[in-house]
User: What shape does this take?
Amino acid sequence: MDENGLESLPADELHDRAVRYAVRHGDLGFLWDLLKVIPAAEAASGHSSESANDLSKVSALLSDAIAAGEGKLGEALRPIYIEYLRKHPDA
Assistant: This one.
């Protein structure tokens, strides 16, 4: 998919495509990077109390990663998904 095509996709679809590709290809580096940026993305999307809790709870981070394509959090993570999908155009 070309760059304009990715830019036009909703955040939840970008999330689903990127995470699905990473899981299918065992790209733990991307998944780990995603987990590391979720607290900052939550703070940027107005959920600063959630980001403080997540820093100390791995299970909360994993739960967030599954839902990280939704709402304001998904929008805050759009650049991460687009960058990853540009590197993997077959995703």
User: Anything to note?
Assistant: The chain has a mean pLDDT of 81. The helical segments are 3-8, 11-24, 28-44, 48-54, 58-66, 71-87. The chain has one domain: 8-87.
